[in-house]
Specification:
- The chain is of the alpha+beta class and about 120 residues long.
- About 35% of the residues lie in helices and about 25% in strands.
- It has a two-stranded antiparallel ribbon. A two-stranded parallel sheet has the order 3-4.
- The chain is built from four helices and four strands.
Length: about 120
Amino acid sequence: GNLSTVGVDVGKWVYKPKFRFRAQAVTFSTWDFGGQQVYYATHQCFMARRSLYLVIYNINDGFAGIDGLRTWLLNIQARAPGSPVLVVATFADLLGKGQQSEQLIKQYRDRIRERY
């Protein structure tokens, strides 16, 4: 099935370094926003400047999926200017393997760089 976040799912992720002697664990607060349009107005209430944003989309949605990133990226820029943003494509494994898939991924990457 296709699972979607409803509202905002708040959680914690603790990173414990394995190779550094006496390195301290780092705790991340995670906020997974529901992507449905009904929730868009509430997202701005939770955005902060001192945050790292992951904007995730399904690569199988093609250029339309990339164009759909615009609303998210503009909202982050307006509410948390200067914050780092990582754009993550999911389901790339479903594109298949080979030169044709690699070319398609390059086209998508170029489109993201050109537009955003």
